[in-house]
Amino acid sequence: MQNVRSDLWQKTSFSTCSYIKSLRDHRAFIVCRAIQSWAKVLELPFAEKIFLDDSSPDLNAMKLLQSSNQINHFDCVRYNTMSHPPHSNFGILISLNLCKSDYILHLDDDIQIVGTHQDCIDILEHGLTILNEDKNILGINLMHVDRSAGGQWGASKDYFASDVFSHPLQYFGNSACLIRRELLEVVSLTTIFNWGKEQPTNWEELVSTSDDTSSFLVAKVGTPFTVDNDAWLFKSTFRVSTLETYKYLLLKKLGLSTLASQFSNKIKEREYNS
Length: 274
Hints:
- InterPro entries: Nucleotide-diphossugar_trans.
- This is Nucleotide-diphospho-sugar transferases.
- Keywords: Transferase.
- The protein folds into two domains: 6-228, Spore Coat Polysaccharide Biosynthesis Protein SpsA, Chain A; 238-274.
- It has helices at residues 6-9, 26-36, 60-67, 90-98, 117-133, 147-150, 189-195, 203-206, 242-253, 257-273; strands spanning 12-18, 48-53, 76-79, 103-108, 111-113, 139-144, 155-158, 165-168, 176-180, 216-219, 225-227.
- By secondary structure, the protein is of the alpha/beta class.
- 34% of the residues lie in helices and 19% in strands.
- The protein has a nine-stranded mixed sheet, with helices on both faces. Strands 5-11 form a two-stranded antiparallel ribbon.
């Protein structure tokens, strides 16, 4: 294993949360491939590693984790039985709250890790060093968000202690992130639970709605943390039929990328507005 700063990793938990409706749909393929890409990161000396199946039918997320051959890397594999609105990030918050360490690395189940293992270690240890030395920073979005596409999640003002991270324009993104445990107190799990269906928006937006973004960072350059473009279509909260899946994948296979993109956008618009 490459040299790592064990003092930082001993203060850090790993957390992820997954919902798999069916092991036979395309999203299961995307998630399995993503989890397999975490293999070397899961070997790092975290204080603990948490996996939460967020009420998947038939324990599907647990079954997928086992089929990915990564289940033995986790110290804790749990199943959430509490129902919640799809937009709440409730499952993610449960998995984060299960962690006991000062810092937490969270990856959504469809995040892929690319590039060299050392590149991954370098950016994670850079982020953890920032959390360790700058108590003002509560959360770091490890993904590069292009301002032209990501809008308010994109990089804005430079951060004095890094050439990799900037402050976001407005929102903190938690798809692939490092957080200080105190962030969980800004908008708590209890608050989310009490809101129920009346929760105004996602947790990641709720914790960063202030005009002052100085407590958050986002990658301003490319990083090893990325997501397959198809993952934006096959989200766990979207209802994409088998026929729609076949049509979309066929358009891609035939090289009709423009038509595939238009078809994908129609489904996304339908689901976001439903």
